[in-house]
Amino acid sequence: MICHPAEQLLADVEWLLSECESFVLDTPLAQFLRSDWSDVFADLQANPQILLQHMASAKSHFLGTYFEQLFSFVVRHFTTLNILAEHQQIHVGGKTFGEVDLLAESEGITYQFEIALKFYLGFYDEPNGTWIGPNKNDSLQKKTNHAREHQLKILTVSEGKEWLRCVSGGDHVVPNLLVYGRHFYFMKNASCEFFAHSHWRGGWLRLSDLTLAAPYLSALSEASKPYWITPNIDKPNKKQINNELLLELSERFVHDNRPVLYSCSSTFRPPNSDTFWLFVCPDDW
Predict the structure, then answer these.
(1) By three-state DSSP, how is residue 68 classified?
(2) Which Pfam families match (predicted)?
(3) CA–CA separation, 74 vs 13, rounded Å?
(4) Does residue 58 lie within any of the structural domains?
(5) Domain check: are 177 and 193 in the same one?
(6) Of 131, 160, 181, which residue is a domain's last?
(7) What domain range includes position 169?
(8) Tens digit of pLDDT for each residue in 90-144?
(9) Please, which of 182, 204, 214, 285 could form a disulfide with 241 given CB 3.0 to 4.6 Å?
(10) How many independent structural domains does the chain possess?
(11) 261: which strand partners?
């Protein structure tokens, strides 16, 4: 059993329902929401036990699994979609050809959902504004290409068609790619001009440039997986951008070169504005 704080889960559910941060939404969940979804959420806030139980049944603590479990809950309790199958592997020639994240039906139409939660860092000095994952092995282009050219086509092969007929009773399926997540814009010249973009909720810079953000960001709280969607509620200790933090990160990057994610307060924005998210990367990232 994996136990999560109720307040954290509720915040993440609310974030997903808002669909305020995403990269690709073919057919957003908003088009399937129940008319009384806000009442359902209010009831859930009053009694989150069903959410706690659902999330505790996840097979692992990884961020991807956490999000898939969260998405499944939202579909079940907040939409008119009828789930037909989840995490179904399609085998071709005795080998796994691909997996259907979620198959659901609404108003006589069957949808194949391919879902993901991604955190991509932007490079504006590269063609088309390349978006790359913090581990540098993933990118938005790779993700969308693989999803559209493979994952969302596995039900077009004979084995996939046969499974689809057994589950849905039909041959037609509508592919639906949903890539949620956060854009981290390159803070090459951190300034009030950068933070004036109110829709930018995330940024990244290298360690040697971290002090450039000191006049604009405060109360940094390191995000711990799987709680990368909304600020961690169980981390009361906040850090400031100062020499102590610079030393801490420089020593850390010697042994672990993965970028570090923080939720922050922005001194340039109103007190009740959205949390700003910051990735601090090693200088050789």
Answers:
(1) helix
(2) DUF1853
(3) 7
(4) yes
(5) no
(6) 181
(7) 6-181
(8) 999 889 999 999 999 999 999 999 999 999 999 865 545 689 999 999 999 999 9
(9) 214
(10) 2
(11) 279
